[in-house]
């Protein structure tokens, strides 16, 4: 279980979910990602990533209340689980550790 | 500002239910945001995203959620029952309509399977053939089954394809049965004369006697089980007993050489005794000649003999035996005789098979109409079920579930109707048997049960499919708000159905009228002789001189106006031979009907004379002959009295010419005929004074007993005999009446349902009209007006069809009524009145409605 992999895009999505705390849903995640990365994404990519994350157990989802917009369709909100958070922390620690191993020289 | 519809539909189609809401929502939100900038790009993005979602993770699982079948079945059953209870009238209408239709079809099926089964009981049925002859006559080719006596033996010898052949004088040669006597017991029985190989050709099980040589000599006879038991009370140890057989010239003592098993019920020509054909030949040596055609010839051909080839082979066979003959032979399968017995100009032209086909079509139609009625009524009443459908769909029922529900409901109704139909058939079967003259019974063998099951399946699918599809197609949102659209197409379909049903009813009403009128005409037509107050009976087994005395004694009884004797009668039983007359050219071949009678016959029957007079007792009977008008016309004789006619080697002088009279059924025109006179014959006609029948018949009976004690005095009234000529027409008359009644019933049911539907639908309209001041009568006119138009259309369609049908049927009669215009108008009016009465209940109820009540609900 500990050997669950996390793809690059999935990691990004997971980070945004964690950042948005409890207000993360499809379109919000999409907008945040697009703003941060300056690249256009397809909503379908986001959803696929979210489903995979949910299957792996990194996020959990809940339905929001019915509102007037979106044609009455509810939003599905995602929140990061403890397991997911640990995963992120591990990744972060790994990256930082490797980063700190780089010698302090100028790379031009 | 809506996302592209097709993409959305596609998404909804393939996407998993648990994801679809979220995905749709997100896509819609993104679309709305992008729409402001560029609508085209927003749509493109939307569509592309939807396509991108088409991945395995997002696609629905193909297996629908498994529904617990047992619970669903119970649920459907409960709902159906509740529906029946709540709407009893429509349930009962459906039930009645379907069960009537099913019962009709069941009756027709029983009748048809019986008809198709007639004469198929022989083991070698596929090899069993009858030899038929084609005679070329001036009027065309006559086909008959009467062949030459020596034909069977000759064919068996000379044709290698023939395994066995037999000559048979069938029972219908002896319509007045003979009398078999043993000691004091006298019984009437039907005989048949057969030649040597009969038991190898036909399946007739010999239970007592030598199977290989059943009829050893010309005084042998084999009797049926039933006859043995009636005569001897046993079937054992009767071989060797001598019985006396009385029938005209074949009267003699015969010795019993065996007992045969009773014939099965599906034999068309049953018999009680089998005699040796040699006995027949002995008494009538003409049978040995090749120039005489009388008995039937049957063959067993080798397996797989090609029929046409064999027929061609024997076509010229007669010419090789009798160079003067002008006939050709051919064979036809024995089992075809009953259904395909008619020949016209040498070619098979149907026969009873026509009725079989007609009735199967009718049965099928009635079932189809009943099913369509069911469909119509179910869909018309849909307004009651839509809320249920709406709620179920809103909760999430799939369309297939709903379809199953309504199909099973119609299956339930069909099943109940089937049970009811079987019950109806069971109860009415005896009456049906009386009408059709058969002995049908419901035996639930595998064919019947599978047939019924199949019919049940087809009916429930046929009748239930359209309502099921129709009811399950409703849009739940619209329906729960109370709207229900009826397309124009549906309305036409419903009205089309009513038109069709009423057209059929009108046709049947016309048919009933025409048949009735024709039967009336037949009964009352002046036949050229009088048949009232005449009784007829036979004096079998009495010597001719005794009969002459009997004849004169009868005339002395008070109350007897006149008495005559005859051999051939005036209901089509007569021979036909060729005559020669002065001035006849050698190539003229003309058949004349031969009526052999005794003195006083023509007077008793009150046949009028055009020229000359009847037979006189002063001149020798063998030199007198009387012809009818038609005969004289055909011969082209002027001043016929005294001219000579030649036949059978005799010469006779014409003493009288009668006016034309009908001596056959009215299907035939009056053919040329002649009378021969003999001093006395075996059959008597006695004209009785009206009002004294009882007493006079008593006295005749007493006289009969002194002359023929021990023999039954079995008399019939001549008009009864005459009626028996038209038995099949009578049946048609009765059956068409029943079918007309049924068709009208089913049409009324259909119209009733339709009326209920339209009345309900137009309730608001009626309320508004009433508020605006329309009277109740005005409403009734309005509603009836629509139906009147429908019925008039159906009348217009029906009348030409019925005209052609009845004309075709009437054309089969040489003497017939004309098709009066009032038959058709009357039938049309009748249908209209029936329609008004049917619709009346609903229109009046609708017209009386309180406007406040129907306009309140919104």
Write the layout of secondary structure elements.
The complex is a heterodimer of chains A (108) and B (858).
Chain A: H1 8-19, H2 26-37, H3 43-56, E1 59-63, E2 76-80, H4 82-100
Antiparallel strand pairs in A: 1-2
Helix pairs in contact in A: 1-3, 2-3
Chain B: H1 5-14, H2 17-35, H3 39-52, H4 69-86, H5 88-117, E1 128-137, E2 140-144, H6 151-158, E3 162-169, E4 178-182, E5 185-189, E6 191-194, H7 198-201, E7 206-209, E8 220-224, H8 225-232, E9 242-246, E10 252-260, E11 273-276, H9 277-283, E12 296-301, H10 307-315, H11 317-321, E13 327-333, E14 343-344, E15 347-348, H12 353-380, H13 382-395, H14 399-436, H15 446-471, H16 476-481, H17 488-524, E16 534-538, H18 544-556, E17 560-566, E18 575-578, E19 580-581, E20 591-598, H19 601-604, E21 609-612, E22 624-628, H20 629-635, E23 644-647, E24 650-658, E25 673-678, E26 683-688, H21 693-707, E27 716-717, H22 718-724, H23 727-761, H24 763-771, H25 776-811, H26 821-847, H27 851-856
Parallel strand pairs in B: 6-11, 8-10, 20-25, 22-24
Antiparallel strand pairs in B: 1-2, 1-12, 1-13, 3-6, 3-12, 4-5, 4-9, 7-10, 8-11, 9-10, 14-15, 16-26, 16-27, 17-26, 18-20, 19-23, 21-24, 22-25, 23-24
Helix pairs in contact in B: 1-3, 2-3, 4-5, 4-14, 5-12, 5-14, 5-23, 12-15, 12-23, 14-15, 17-23, 17-25, 17-26, 18-21, 23-26, 25-26
């Amino acid at each position: 279980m500990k050997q669950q992999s996390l793809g690059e895009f999935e990691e990004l999505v997971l980070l945004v979910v964690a950042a948005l705390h409890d207000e993360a849903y499809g379109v919000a995640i999409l907008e945040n990602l697009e703003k941060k990365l300056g690249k256009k994404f397809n909503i379908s990519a986001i959803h696929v990533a979210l489903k995979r994350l949910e299957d792996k157990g990194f996020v959990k989802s809940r339905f929001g209340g019915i509102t007037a917009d979106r044609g009455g369709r509810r939003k599905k909100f995602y929140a990061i689980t403890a397991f997911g958070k640990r995963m992120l922390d591990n990744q972060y620690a790994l990256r930082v550790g490797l980063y700190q191993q780089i010698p302090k020289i100028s790379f031009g | 500002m809506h996302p592209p519809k097709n993409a959305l539909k596609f998404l909804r189609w393939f996407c998993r239910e648990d994801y679809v809401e979220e995905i749709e929502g997100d896509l819609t939100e993104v679309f709305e945001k992008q729409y402001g900038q560029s609508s085209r790009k927003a749509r493109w993005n939307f569509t592309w995203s939807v396509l991108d979602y088409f991945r395995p993770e997002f696609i629905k699982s193909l297996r629908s959620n498994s529904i617990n079948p047992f619970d669903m079945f119970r649920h459907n059953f409960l709902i159906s029952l509740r529906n029946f209870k709540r709407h009893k009238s429509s349930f009962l209408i459906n039930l009645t309509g379907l069960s009537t239709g099913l019962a009709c079809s069941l009756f027709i099926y029983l009748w048809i399977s019986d008809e198709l089964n007639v004469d198929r009981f022989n083991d070698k049925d596929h090899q069993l053939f009858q030899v038929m002859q084609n005679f070329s006559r001036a009027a065309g080719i006559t086909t008959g089954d009467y062949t030459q006596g020596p034909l069977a033996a000759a064919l068996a010898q000379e044709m290698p394809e023939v395994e066995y052949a037999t000559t048979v004088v069938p029972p219908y040669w002896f319509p007045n049965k003979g009398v078999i006597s043993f000691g004091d017991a006298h019984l009437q029985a039907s005989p048949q004369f057969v030649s040597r190989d009969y038991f190898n050709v036909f399946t007739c099980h010999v239970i007592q006697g030598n199977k290989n040589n059943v009829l050893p000599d010309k005084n042998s006879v084999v009797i049926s089980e039933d006859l043995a038991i009636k005569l001897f009370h046993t079937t054992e140890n009767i071989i060797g007993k001598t019985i006396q057989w009385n029938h005209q010239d074949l009267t003699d003592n015969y010795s019993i050489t065996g007992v045969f098993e009773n014939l099965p019920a599906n034999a068309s020509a049953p018999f009680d005794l089998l005699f040796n054909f040699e006995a027949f030949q002995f008494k009538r040596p003409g049978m040995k000649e090749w120039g005489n055609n009388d008995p039937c010839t049957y063959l067993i051909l080798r397996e797989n003999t090609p029929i046409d080839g064999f027929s061609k082979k024997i076509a010229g066979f007669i010419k090789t035996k009798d160079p003067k003959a002008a006939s050709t032979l051919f064979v036809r399968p024995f089992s075809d005789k009953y259904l395909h017995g008619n020949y016209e100009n040498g070619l098979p032209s149907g026969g009873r098979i026509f009725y079989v086909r007609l009735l199967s079509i009718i049965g099928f139609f009635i079932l189809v109409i009943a099913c369509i009625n069911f469909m119509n009524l179910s869909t018309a009443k849909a307004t009651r079920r839509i809320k249920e459908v709406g709620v179920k769909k809103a909760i999430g029922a799939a369309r297939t579930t709903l379809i199953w529900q309504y199909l099973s409901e119609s299956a339930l109704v069909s099943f109940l109707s089937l049970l009811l139909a079987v019950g109806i058939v069971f109860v009415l079967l005896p009456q049906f048997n009386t009408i059709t003259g058969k002995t049908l019974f419901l035996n639930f063998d595998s064919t019947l049960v599978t047939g019924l099951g199949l019919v049940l399946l087809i009916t429930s699918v046929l009748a239930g499919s359209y309502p099921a599809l129709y009811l399950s197609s409703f849009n739940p949102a619209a329906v729960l708000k109370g709207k229900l659209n009826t397309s124009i197409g549906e309305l036409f379909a419903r009205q089309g159905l009513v038109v069709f049903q009423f057209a059929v009813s009108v046709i049947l009403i016309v048919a009933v009228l025409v048949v009735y009128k024709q039967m009336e005409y037949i009964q009352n037509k002046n036949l050229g002789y009088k048949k009232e107050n005449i009784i007829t009976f036979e004096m079998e087994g009495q010597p001719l001189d005794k009969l002459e005395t009997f004849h004169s004694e009868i005339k002395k009884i008070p109350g007897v106006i006149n008495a005559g004797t005859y051999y051939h009668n005036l209901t089509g039983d007569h021979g036909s031979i060729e005559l020669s007359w002065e001035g006849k050219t050698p190539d003229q071949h003309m058949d004349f009907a031969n009526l052999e009678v005794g003195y006083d016959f023509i007077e008793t029957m009150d046949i009028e004379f055009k020229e000359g007079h009847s037979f006189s007792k002063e001149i020798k009977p063998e030199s007198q002959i009387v012809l009818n008008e038609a005969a004289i016309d055909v011969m082209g004789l002027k001043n016929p009295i005294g001219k000579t006619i030649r036949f059978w080697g005799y010469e006779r002088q014409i003493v009288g010419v009668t006016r034309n009279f009908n001596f056959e059924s009215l299907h035939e025109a009056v053919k040329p005929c002649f009378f021969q006179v003999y001093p006395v014959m075996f059959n008597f006609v006695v004209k009785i004074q009206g009002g004294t029948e009882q007493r006079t018949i008593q006295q005749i009976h007493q006289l009969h007993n002194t002359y023929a004690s021990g023999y039954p005095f079995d008399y019939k009234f001549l008009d009864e005999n005459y009626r028996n000529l038209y038995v099949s027409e009578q049946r048609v008359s009765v059956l068409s009446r029943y079918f007309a009644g049924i068709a009208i019933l089913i049409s009324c049911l259909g119209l009733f349902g339709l009326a209920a539907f339209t009345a309900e639908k137009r309730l608001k309209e009626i309320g508004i009209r009433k508020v605006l001041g329309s009277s109740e009568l005005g409403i009734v006119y309005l509603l009836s007006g629509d139906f009147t138009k429908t019925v008039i259309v159906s009348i217009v369609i029906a009348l030409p069809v019925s005209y052609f049908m009845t004309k075709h049927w009437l054309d089969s009669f040489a003497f017939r009524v004309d098709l009066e215009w009032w038959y058709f108008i009357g039938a049309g009016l009748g249908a209209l009145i029936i329609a008004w009465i049917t619709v009346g209940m609903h229109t009046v109820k609708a017209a009386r409605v309180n406007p406040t009540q129907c306009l309140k609900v919104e």
